[in-house]
Amino acid sequence: MGKGAILGSAALAAVSTIRAARTVAAWRTVEPLPDMALNKGKVSVVIPVRDEERTIDGCLASLRTQRHGDLEIVVVDDASTDRTVQIVQEHVDADPRVRLVRTDGPPPGWAGKVHAMYRGVAETSGDWLLFVDSDTESAPDLVGKLLAAADRDDADLITTPGRPTVPNSGWWLLLAPTNVLLFDGASPDGSRGRAVGIGHCILVSRAAYDKAGGWRALSNERADDVAFATAVRDAGGRTRLVDGLDSLTSSGLDSFGAVWRSQRKSCVAGGAMIGGPVAGAAALGFAGLLHIGYGFAPMLMSLRGKGFSRLAGLAAWAAQSAAHRSYMRACHMSTATSVLAPAANAAFGVLLLDSAWRSLRGGDLWKGRDMR
C-alpha cells in the first residue's frame, strides 16, 4: 500500500470522525421544549402561502386551537392559483383572529417567501413574531412552549423542525447528510459559524426582528431561515435551536420525492447565492462528486481493502453512521438505518449533481418560479 493511499485513507477517517464529533456534540446542546407553557405577551403568527390548498386548512385549524390567550394569525397569499385563498377565507370568516393579506407576487429584488413574510409582519402588532410553514400542524401548546423556551434560554429567537407525519427514506438518505453539512458551518446556539434557523417554525421577538433589519435586509435571500437567524445573532440577539418535534408536524416531507424536490430547490437557490448560476452549478457539481466519494470510499475500503485501508474504511463508516444516528435520534425516528450512512452520503452527492444540472439548464422551478 503506497504512502499516498495511506494518507488518503487516514484523511477520510479523520474527516469523518471530526464531522461526526461536531454533529453529535451539536445535538447534545439541543434541549426539548419546556413541559409548562408560558401565557405571556401577544404573539403574531405569519404564514406565507403559495398554492397550498392541500395543507393550509390543517395548518390554520391547528393554530386556531392554540391555548395562548393573545394570538393573531396573518396569512399572506403569494399569488396563488389554486383554492388556497378560498380555504383561508373560510377560516377568516370563522375566527376574528385570522386575517388574509393578498399580494400579486414579489417586486423585483425580492424572493417570494421573504416578501410575503415581510408584508405579513407589517400587518401585525405582537410582541413576538412566529413564522410557520403552511405544511405544518401545531399542538395546542406549541406557542406557549416556544415562549417558555425563549424565557428559559433568555433567547430572542427560538426555532424547531417539525417531525414527519409519514416517516420515509428521504429523511435518512437526504436529510441526515444535509444536517451534517449544516453543522459543518452552523451551530444550534449561534456560537460558531452561522446560526441555525429552521423554516418550519421560527419565533422571534419583535425587538430583535427590528434590530436585525427584518426581512427587508434579506429581500433576495433564498436560504432565508439560516440567513434570518444569523442576522438576528449578528445584531446582538440570542438564538436557539430546540426540540419541538412533539408539538409540531410537517407533511411537506412525507415522501422521498418530496424530500428530493425540496432539498434540490434549496441547493439550487443556495448555489446561485454563491456567485450566480454558473458558479453555483460548478460549486454544487464539485460538492456532489466529493459527497459521492465520501460515501463510496468507506464502503469500498471496508469491503475490499486490506490492512490499514480496511481499518480506516471501517473507522470512517462508523463515524459517518454515528453522525447520522444522532440526527435520526433527534428527529424521533428509527436509528437503525444509520448503519447505511455512507450510502446516504453518496445519494446526497447525486442530489447535488442533479441540482447542478438543474442550475445549468435554466434553474429549478418551485411552484412556477425559478429558484436561482
Automatic annotation (TrEMBL):
<dbReference type="InterPro" id="IPR001173">
    <property type="entry name" value="Glyco_trans_2-like"/>
</dbReference>
<keyword id="KW-0472">Membrane</keyword>
<dbReference type="GO" id="GO:0016757">
    <property type="term" value="F:glycosyltransferase activity"/>
</dbReference>
<feature type="domain" description="Glycosyltransferase 2-like">
    <location>
        <begin position="44"/>
        <end position="211"/>
    </location>
</feature>
<keyword id="KW-0328">Glycosyltransferase</keyword>
<feature type="transmembrane region" description="Helical">
    <location>
        <begin position="272"/>
        <end position="297"/>
    </location>
</feature>
<dbReference type="InterPro" id="IPR029044">
    <property type="entry name" value="Nucleotide-diphossugar_trans"/>
</dbReference>
<dbReference type="Pfam" id="PF00535">
    <property type="entry name" value="Glycos_transf_2"/>
</dbReference>
<keyword id="KW-1133">Transmembrane helix</keyword>
<keyword id="KW-0808">Transferase</keyword>
<protein>
    <submittedName>
        <fullName>Glycosyltransferase</fullName>
        <ecNumber>2.4.-.-</ecNumber>
    </submittedName>
</protein>
<keyword id="KW-0812">Transmembrane</keyword>
